[in-house]
Amino acid sequence: MEYYVAIASIIGIHTMLGLSVYLVAISGQMSFGQQGFFAIGAYLAGMSTALWGLALLPALVVGTLVAGVVGLLVGLPALRVRGLYLAIATFGFGEIVRLAFLNVHYTRTIGDRVVGPNGAEGFRHVRYVFDRGFTGLHYLAVILAVLAVVVALYYLLERSKLGATLRAVEEDETAAASVGINVTRVKVAAFAAAGAVAGLGGGLFIHYSTYVDHDMVALPLAIASVTYPILGGLGSFVGPILGAVVLVSLTEGLRFLHELREFVYGGLIIVTMIFRPRGIVDEALVLRVKAWFRPARH
Amino acid sequence: MFFDATEQFINGVMYGFLYALIGGGFTILFGVMRRFNLAYGSTIMAAAYVSLIPLYLFKAPVWLMVLVGMAAAVLIGLLVEFCCFRFIKKGHELAPLLATIGMLIAINEAIVHATDAAGLAYPSPFGDESLEVGPFLVRTDYLAVMVAGVICFALLFLLIHKTRFGRAMRAVAERPEAAQILGVSVRRINVLTFVLTSAMAGLIGFFTAVSVGSARPDLAVFVTGKGLVVMVLGGLGSLPGAILGGLVLGVLEFEATWFLGATFRDILAFVILFAILVFRPSGLLGARAS
């Protein structure tokens, strides 16, 4: 049981990362740097509870807001470039954050433990959740509740004019600009919001694992984050959720294959890309599903 | 102070040729196909491992190790081209990128399972002694990297500017549709470009492992990071830019390590990367942005 709770928790947290990359993707860009915002959220939320004595919810808000503000500050200059350039620039940003945390020492001795970001040692003993007697199941409920709020916001966004604006920018920036859309502002807003979502995921993560270090937010996490939406599909927010569920479950579920596991994993990504280059839930599928729910006209 | 700076400058230029080769491999592929191959770092890493096989089996000489590494890299490169680029429909930029990530996972896993994830010692055929050049100490393996880099780039320029294949390659890089209409087989050029850059990957794998002292799985991440920075520094798709970018990065890293310390060095590389991308996206020598 605990095993499944752990997997579900990881899925919930990684879904945040997938949704974060997705939000940048539907404004037509690809970010390889969302793990940087994840790290910022994790460190800030962790410091809030472990060092500054905040409760969990305000701590998550702190992590989310700081990640969002950093997203805004990074997005303003960075979104002057696009495509592969932006992908590489954002990866550079993620690495800068990671290497910065590798050098941050801000600790205090609480009881007999040294608490706080401690360079290469990482940030240990974020025990807020444990000290208050949460079980894994309780905390899973917290993760899912937060995720539900985020997903609801995404649902509203996709039905709103703003969602349509994002898609218009993705489709054709010049055309979007010619009908009066401020392309840069839309892209920067999406990037900042995506940073906040990743930061929220980071805050949830550090309180789940009690621990984070710079190795956990390196290239492999960047790769996982972009894999969820691209494999799951860029047609709807269901895509990154599906991607995270499928890929994290596969990572666990394929354990019986032992040595072949990673080959199957890598192979599945390749095969999916060959047959569904816009992911499993692509725009065509979204339109078809929507057609089922539309009342038939005669 | 000035003496140290000069010595680090010399080392940086020499080692920079390794970065130039890495960036060159990424750049040629990007220039011709407008696609990015994230499995390239893994190809380099796997080639370094495979080149150890003849050494273990029968104490093979250096040139044979390099050749075996290059052959292995070409095979892997052809596999990457076949799986990740050939069948994916046109007009989807992200799909081949993600497919190469799938390939990266598979290659890394193959290496980790074959060798238990611990690195293998990689003996330097150039000895541990440093050469004295005037008042400066110069590492022999760095000198070898520079010589190999100069030869490799000379051959590349001959290939690109003096042969039919090179002309076809430039045509495809410029306008794939127009090249196709004029009778250039784009698919064939793509495959040959993969063969060319993969052969470079074999060479890079050898020199990277020699300079690090071991073949390790994390060489893949190391060379990918350097490759990205060099590519961007020089301007995406510009080979002279990649060479200059490699040398600049080499010098900056050596000076930064000497004067500021090793952890600062890595941050510096990425700060430069970010700044160049944002403020001068065409790179040092690139002609056009985005």
What features would you highlight for this structure?
heterodimer, A: 298 residues, mainly alpha, three-stranded antiparallel beta sheet, 13 helices, 71% helix, globular, B: 290 residues, two-stranded antiparallel ribbon, two-stranded antiparallel sheet, 4 strands
How does this model look, in words?
With 298 residues, chain A is mainly α. Chain A contains 13 helices and three strands. The relative contact order of chain A is 0.18. Chain B has helices at 2-33, 40-50, 52-58, 62-86, 94-115, 140-162, 164-174, 176-181, 186-212, 219-234, 239-260, 262-279, and strands spanning 120-121, 130-133, 136-139, 214-215. Chain B has a two-stranded antiparallel ribbon with strand order 1-4. The radius of gyration of chain B is 19 Å and the shape is globular. The chains are: A mainly alpha (298), B mainly alpha (290).
Largest sheet of chain A: 3 strands, antiparallel
Mean pLDDT, all residues of chain A: 89
Low-confidence stretches of chain B: none
Structural class of chain A: mainly alpha
Give the fraction of residues assigned to helices of chain A: over 70%
Strand order of the largest sheet of chain A: 1-2-3
Cα distance spanning the termini of chain A: 51 Å
Basic shape of chain B: globular
Largest interface: A-B, 42 and 46 residues
Number of DSSP E strands of chain B: 4
